Structure formats: C-alpha cells, structure tokens
Amino acid sequence: MADKFPEIDSAATNGDFEGDFLSREKELVGDEFKTDQDHDFLKDEEEDDEINEFKEQFPEVDEAEPVVNQEIDDDDDEFEGFESSKNNINNSSHNHQYSSNGDLDLSESQAIKEWKERRDLEIGEREKKNKAKKEEILEEAKRTIDDFYENYNLKKDNHSKDILTEEDKFVEKRDNFLKRGTLWDRVNELVTEVGEVSVSDADGSHRDKTRFKELLNKLKNKDNVPGAGGYQD
C-alpha cells in the first residue's frame, strides 16, 4: 500500500499540486485510462507553467510600475522617517544645548559680575594709593623747592656778606697802605712784595733791572725828592 499510495510532500506548493496528482494517477493506473487528449492536456499544463515562470521573471512594464512606485513610496517613507528622527534628535540636542548654555550663561554672568566687583575694588584701592603717592611726591617736591630757595637765599646772603667783608678789608688795607711814608717808600714796598718779575723786551732780550732797584732804594725815606708826596689834586 505504501508503494501504491506514497506520502504527499507537505512542502509542495499549490501550483505543482495538479501536476503531481496527474503523475501519481498515471503511475497507479498506467495506460489503462489513457486517451488522446491527455498528451494535449499535459502539454498545455507544461506550457502554462513555463509562461507563468517567464512572467514572474520578466514582468510587463505596466504591471512593474506600481511595484517601482511602491518601492519609491517606501523609500520616501523611510527617508521621511529618517528626517523626522534626525529633526527630533537635533531638536532634543538643541534644547539640551540651549538649557546647558542657559545655565552656563547664568554661571558666566555671575562670575563676570563678581569679577567686575573685584576689579572695581582693586581699581579703587589702586587709585587711592596712587593719589596718596602723588600727594606725597608733590609735598616732597614742594619741600625740595622750598629748601632750594631757602638755601639759595641763605647762601646768597652769606656770599654777599663775605664780599662786603672782603671789600671792607681791602679798602682798609689800601687806605693804611696809602698813609704810610712817601710814594717811593710805597713803591719799594710793592716791589719787594711782588718780587722779581721777568719781563722780556720786544727783541726777546732781558734787561738788567739792578740799577733801577738801586735808584728806588736811594729815593726811599726821603721827603724832599720829586714825587715823594704822591699824586695830589
């Protein structure tokens, strides 16, 4: 019985069921019920199978267009879904970044505010120190100028006093000198005080002044010699 009725393959498709059924019937009954139309029927079945297989492999253009359009629609849907997901991600990232930046801006604003306060305090302290130092420098300069003029005036007064003192001494010495002896006595005194003076003539030769000194010595202590009384108005 197993040979006559083999098990039906569960993996067979509906398209092959009729062909398999006719083949099994042919194996069972043989050529007993064979007719002339069987060959044509089987041939038509085989041709139908070949046509269907060809159509599946090479579909018509009109029939293929919906498939292509469907694929394009699927691609568009997939692209739109990708763009939507991308926009959602970007929006989420932007919102997160905005929130983070907002917090950061607040933090920076607080830090900048504190920095400005510290800067203002430092500038104020520095200005106070600079002002105090400037006043100190001005006071020192004023004292220096006052000391300079005070010392200058003091030195000027002292110098004037010294000059007047020297002048008084010179005048007193001169008057005392003119009161002593005769003119020739004073001349001999000056010659002795000055000492030997070397005087060259125009030709470069030196004259002997011994006789001139002897003559002055002879005129000394004599009131009756010419010019002994000096210059008189």
From TrEMBL:
One GO location term (cellular component): clathrin coat of coated pit
Location in or out of the cell: Cytoplasmic vesicle membrane; Membrane, Coated pit
Residue spans of biased composition, Acidic residues class: 59-81
Alphabetically ordered keywords of this record: Coated pit, Coiled coil, Cytoplasmic vesicle, Membrane
Region (Disordered): 1-105
Family recorded in the similarity comment: Belongs to the clathrin light chain family.
Designated name of the protein: Clathrin light chain
